[in-house]
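HOLO CASE FILE
Compound: adenosine-5'-diphosphate
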Amino acid sequence: MTETILVVNAGSSSIKFQLFAVGAGDRLERMIKGQVDGIGTRPRLVAVTSQRAILADETWPPSEVATIPAALDKVIAFLRPQIGGNLPDALGHRVVHGGPHYASPVVMTSAILSELEKLTPLAPLHQPNNLAPIRAVLERRPHLLQVACFDTAFHRGHPELADRYAIPQSLYAEGVRRYGFHGLSYEYIAQRLPQVAPQISNGRIVVAHLGSGASMCAIAGGKSMDSTMGFTAMDGLPMGTRPGQLDPGVVLYLLTEKNMTADAVQDFLYKDCGLKGLSGISNDVRNLLASTDPRAALALNYFTYRIALFTGMLAAAMGGIDAFVFTAGIGENAPAIREAVIRRLEWLGLRLSSQANKKNALCISRKGTKIPCFVIPTDEELMIATHTLQVMRKREYAGFQEKSA
Ligand code: ADP
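Model generated. Tokens follow.
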């Protein structure tokens, strides 16, 4: 019987999921993709096949799907008939924070879950939502293999200087460090490079992950050297609704002069800043590109300006740059943003091929350019499924034979 892996990405009011089948030679094939959103308000499950045929579009009263674990139950109940009445052989979870110690995926046990729950203050908006379904499954189906894959893990090997803030060591010891995020995306890109651009895969590469969350990473020899996010997923580039790099003095100003509470400041920084705050129009780059309002242009200029500034910073971290990669929603689909970024980096040796850029081609730089530039679609879910399969195989090798019945 074909083995399957369910990848789960649980947020505050939605669960995104993808089901992979393990084919011949352990090739992972995406079978089903879907999400439950409106958890607790207007719960709705939509699922499609890998060919985008609709498999499910179901709604429930809010009381029936009031929590993330309840939504995962609905997902599993929907998937079971699709896989011969069985449960998936393993669940692979996206978990935002692995703290200082988790540099690779880990099999979930209650003890490890408790450790990860202690990291909630480091990612208050994400960590509890990521962990809630893991706890529910551990309680109800303890033999179902669950693997946590961390957004921080890829950066754990970065140099010590990249891990530090200039604050007393005691704070570093208790975990106030520069972690970096979007690690599953960067790891995927690092693994794809030898296939799609072998000539630069071992070089010094700046990768810009530009989605609703956005960050950049310096990858040298396939490893993270530094990135634009730090202690939380708020630093670095401006994002849809987060400001990116901000003088801590601004936060003090909000607290003391505006009399905002810490909770209000947190809400403000996560939800009302970034492209949305600066433009006063939208957090979505598509809307800003379509707008003729000068505030939309200002927000997009700020975005591409900061990407160019951070390219300089990350190139300095590696002592140079051999290639540039765009990925994620904006990076993969917005030629105008890529063009603006590359124009700002011409001084560094980047040159755009307008035609290739308009087509979202793999290589969008002019032939013979000193620093080639690529568009590589990311696939964090495939990365999670790959890690989960590796853990499954290691356990089999080590003699674990638990079955998820
Ligand atoms: P998430 O971080 O939610 O996974 P994605 O990587 O899917 O985000 O990126 C979502 C963002 O990508 C949207 O907010 C939107 O601004 C942007 N985006 C998607 N398609 C386009 C497009 N064709 N042109 C410009 N921006 C786009």
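CASE NOTES: The chain has a mean pLDDT of 95. The chain has 14 helices and 13 strands.
CLOSED: yes
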